[in-house]
Amino acid sequence: MRDLPYNPLSAGIEEIRQAWGWFLGLGILLTILGIACVAFDEMTTSATMLAFGWLLFIGGIFALVQALFSGTWSGFFLYLLSALFRGFMGYLLIRYPAIGAETVTLVLAAFLIVTGTFRAIGFGMARFPQWGWAVFSGLLSVVLGIVLLVQMPAASVWFIGFAIGVDLIFDGAAITSFATVLHRGLRDRPTLRAA
Predict the structure, then answer these.
(1) CA–CA separation, 88 vs 100, rounded Å?
(2) Residue 154 to residues 47, 150, 151, 165: CA-CA distances in angstroms?
(3) Could you count the other beta carbons within 10 Å of the beta carbon of residue 169?
(4) pLDDT tier at 138 (50, 70, 90 boundaries)?
(5) Do 122 and 88 contact (CB within 8 A), yes or no?
(6) Is the pLDDT score of 149 beyond 80?
(7) What distance in Å separates the CA atoms of residue 147 and residue 134, rounded to the nearest whole number?
(8) In the structure, what pLDDT confidence band is assigned to residue 195 with cuts at 50, 70 and 90?
(9) Residue 141 belongs to what H/E stretch?
(10) CA-CA distance, 48 to 94, in Å (whole number)?
(11) Domain parsing of the chain, residue ranges
């Protein structure tokens, strides 16, 4: 009888396989939530801006309290200004979520254009195997950024909610497929026999 060496990775995978149903449930839930976000993209955009605003505001309050308790520190005023700025930005997002959505969409559009351009040029110059797909991805990002800029401010009403929904759908699909692979592996796994 031959002893197999202990492999901590395979032991961890075995534990994950036992929980394949939880992964499947999470994947289905994320997919449904993503579809709802895409269907109600304007409401999702507003809710996202409000949630982000509250997080900034509450974070600003905690940072302000921490700055006041550490008043003798040499960087006190810088930390205090940072806390006040964070709280003020949170307040603005809570008070004016539509303007916050416009600003975030404008920043995302600029980010897509700049990173897409650099990605397309960089991968086009490097020409590694399958470089055409990377260039295409970069050009697609540039086009999406330009479309967002052309459709401003109307795009800011729906784009953030739509993007969150699509991301949730892809995450849910990935986790669901992971769960099915785990389940198939659990069902079809061969039994170890001694040689």
Answers:
(1) 13
(2) 17, 9, 6, 18
(3) 18
(4) confident
(5) no
(6) yes
(7) 20
(8) very low
(9) helix 131-150
(10) 10
(11) 21-188
Tell me: the pLDDT tens digits for 52-107? 899 999 999 988 888 787 766 667 788 788 889 999 999 998 998 888 888 888 88
Looking from the CA of 154 toward its CB, the CA atoms found within 13 Å total: 3
What confidence tens digit (pLDDT) does each residue in 113-137 have?
Answer: 898 898 888 878 877 767 777 788 8
Query: Do residues 176 and 31 touch, judged by C-beta distance below 8 A?
Result: yes
Distant-in-sequence, close-in-space partners of 147: CB < 8 Å, separation ≥ 6: 155
Tokens standing for residue 33: 């939530």
Three-state secondary structure readout of the chain: CCCCCCCHHHHHHHHHHHCHHHHHHHHHHHHHHHHHHHHCHHHHHHHHHHHHHHHHHHHHHHHHHHHHHCCCCCCHHHHHHHHHHHHHHHHHHHHCHHHHHHHHHHHHHHHHHHHHHHHHHHHHHHCCCCHHHHHHHHHHHHHHHHHHHHCCCHHHHHHHHHHHHHHHHHHHHHHHHHHHHHHHHHHHCCCCCCC
Tell me the pLDDT of the chain averaged across its residues: 80
Maximal CA-CA distance, the chain: 72
Residue with tokens 């991968």: 123
Q: Are 123 and 134 in contact (CB under 8 A)?
A: yes
